Amino acid sequence: MTCIRVCLTDILNCFSGYNNGFEELRKIWEEWDLRILVLFILFTQLYLHFFGRHRRKSTARVLVNVNVWLLYLFSDLLATIALGKLSKAKDDGDLAIPKDLSKVDIPGTNKTLPQILENYRDTNKTWSQIFEDLGDTNKTMPQILRGLWAPVILFCLGGPDTMTVLRLEENHLWVRHLIGLFTQGLRTVYVLIINWNPNGLSILALLLLIPGIIKYGERVWVIRSRSGGKYQGFIKLDETTIDETSNSVSQSNAKLVLQAYSCFQILNPHIDDYECNSKSLKSLVERFSKSVDENLAKGDTDIENSFKLIEIELGLIYDMLFSKVGTVFTVWGIILRSISFSCLVSVLVSFFLISMPPGRVEGDFLITIMLLVGAIFLEIAGILVQLVSDWVIVWARKYPGRLANLVLRVHEFLIPERKRWSGFMGQFSFLNFCEEYKPTRYRKMVQSLCGREKMLSRFGSLSAVQLSVKKLIIKQLLEKSKEGSDALQPLATKRGEWSIEKYKCPEFKWSVELEFNRSLVIWHLATHVCYHSEYVLTDEMKAANILSNYMMYLLLVCPSRFPFCNKYDKFMEDYDILKELVSSWSNERACENQLEQDIDLRDTTVANQVQHLFKGLREKADRWEIMRNVWVEMLCYASSQFPSKHHVEELRHGGEFLTHVWLLLMHFGVGRKVERNFPKSRKDEYDSLTKNTGKDFDDLRDKAFDKYLPETKPTTSYLVELEGCV
Question: Which UniProt keywords are present, listed alphabetically (predicted)?
Fold first, then answer.
């Protein structure tokens, strides 16, 4: 192989033509790219800490949720890139060749490059040996100092306490996070090895590795705990303890949280197909119905307590499934957090006390301090977030004492009025859309690129959930529950039939037997016309109209988030029909007069069906009672038509009022299966007999049941039911 030697005396001439005009820019970038990267990683964690929890209370999807989504996705990627750059054995920031090498000061030598090379003039060392000597000198400060950054980056990979996962499905990907802990942990150890130097900074970097592994390992532990599908949190109280502590607690907010936790533990609403204990569920329904009845009798303020209980319960579910809340309330959690925090504080204090080796420290020194302070801040802020959550009350009741009493007092006076969800519900008026929408080229482009939902959302609005709406729903559910324990069950399957039967108006039955999306549109349009044809509007009329607009909002703007029925594909066709009618209506009175004209019952267009329904409602003196009850029934029906994961996912977007109705129905016993309990001995006998494959199954079955039911022969349906249960 040809050996190419370069004369040391010609080094200045060799480097004189290297500059191409971008050297200064390249030098600045190579010096600051890693610094900017690690600072951005720290900023990402701080942003996710504050706004990751805020997303459960805000509907500002673009300003909050989109930013959180992007930063969450980039946080792991940027951390991987930063560890990759740190794992290089050279200090990229100091290898840029300046214009004038005669003015270069080699860090740790106080000599210029020509002065250094003069010492090698009479030696036989090669260029690689010379630069290896210079590399050992240059490694003194910048690289060793940056070796402290790798454990901090590993610490940031553990994520903030307010946001462990972005979506619910990530809880099943714990293996991916475990592999990430293994690979990034090895890369961090490699960075420490290549930058190892027998001085205090390397020892601090090794000590800083402990909180990094603990933080990332805690994230894997939390996600792994949720992956089973029946996760119920890190803190568990038995029903007896809850009842005893609820009676002894004097703080109203703490008592409400304990009641919410008790309901959560019985219902487990986040678990699909969960079977509740029949005795516990019956007791819950009785207690909740009695509480609602008392709240209605006391007044409007107490009605809010029924929905506040639902808010607290949904908050417990969000903290349990999307954050690390609850980890510091376990023994291992307290131990690991104490070790992590102690190591971080010790490293920061020692960093100021240790003597720095010679070298350039201006930028890296300040950045290292910022990273250490930021890590300590995230640790303190994470602990505080857990101490002000509703879960801390459950912990205080499980481990009573002076500290627990102090926590309860703080929670009662400082936190009870905090916002737990967005408190808004969407509104969409079909007729207003027909008046305002103009099929411009821009809107067609938005619809083709972003979808119809995005286009329609521009014509919707958000309004605060009114007390009249809550009162209307509570009153109807309570009234129905008083008819019997099973009276509310049809609400999960009926969508207006009960109200039509109650008010004896079979002429409207056709309107609720249509496809659900079509039925919603017809009742919405009829309600809209009736509402605007009234001279005096009451709170109950306003509540019915709000529910009408809300159901249209869910149908047209949120069909993928809440798939309670098929998508309304005929929307634009109905728009074309209604647009012509709306254009001829100078006012609401003209609309009413036109709808009162004769109709053709064979015509199935939306305008004719709305006209048919409206004329029937106008003849009813109690039409608003009918409409109120129909809309509540449709709302309850819609909330029960899709898996609970859709409701749980919506918690990270500020929550949806439909989710509150879904959970409210569960407290009345709707939507939850009940365990089927059989005598244990009979079940065991049945199991043992069915395992014997040497005999015919029919003989074994008869033998098992004849032993315990000698006087009756079990029916086929009962046997099938028992077989499925066993």
Answer: Membrane, Transmembrane, Transmembrane helix
Res 53: pLDDT: 81
Cα pseudo-dihedral 40, 41, 45, 51, rounded to 10? 40
Whole-number pLDDT of residue 1: 43
User: Which helix or strand (DSSP H or E) is residue 571 part of?
Assistant: helix 571-583
Kindly give, in sequence order, each residue whose CB lies less than 8 Å from that of residue 683, ignoring residues fewer than 6 positions away.
Answer: 726
Q: Which two tokens stand for residue 354?
A: 């240790």
Between strands 461-464 and 275-276, the pairing is unpaired
pLDDT in the model for residue 154 = 94
CA distance 285 to 394: 22
354 or 48: which leads in pLDDT = 48
> Which of 498-501's residues contact partners 24+ apart within 8 Å by CB, and which partners?
498/629, 498/633, 499/626, 499/629, 499/630, 499/633, 500/626, 500/630
H or E segment to which residue 427 belongs = strand 424-427
Select the more confidently predicted residue: 246 or 506.
506
Task: Give pLDDT tens digits for 551-608.
Answer: 999 998 888 888 887 777 787 777 777 776 665 554 555 555 555 565 555 566 788 8
At a CB cut-off of 8 Å and minimum separation 6, what does 523 contact?
496, 511, 548, 613, 627, 630, 631, 634
What average pLDDT score do residues 359-388 get?
86
Closest CA to 562 of 474, 461, 649: 649
Interval 697-713 mean pLDDT: 45
More confident residue, 6 or 38: 38
Average pLDDT, the chain: 78
Question: What is d(CA 337, CA 215) in angstroms, rounded to the nearest whole number?
Answer: 8
The three-class DSSP label of residue 390 is coil
Our measurement of the distance from residue 465's CA atom to the centroid of its chain's CA atoms, rounded to an integer in Å, reads 21
Classify burial at 273, counting beta carbons within 10 Å of its beta carbon; exposed 0-12, middle 13-18, buried 19 or more.
exposed
DSSP reduced 3-state for 519:
helix
Name residues whose C-beta falls within 8 Å of residue 402's C-beta, 6 or more positions apart in sequence.
Answer: none
Average pLDDT for residues 260-278, to the nearest whole number? 87
CA angle centred on 636, ends 630 and 641, rounded to 5°: 125
CA dihedral 551→552→554→559, nearest 10 degrees, is: 130
Q: How far apart (Å, rounded) are the C-alpha atoms in residues 434 and 446?
A: 18
Q: Which amino acid is at 684?
A: D
Distance, in Å, from the CA atom of 656 to the CA atom of 562, rounded to the nearest integer, reads 10
Q: How many residues does the chain have?
A: 726
Over range 695-720, report the average pLDDT: 43
- Give the whole-angstrom CA distance, residue 641 versus residue 637: 7
The residue with tokens 């003039």 is 121
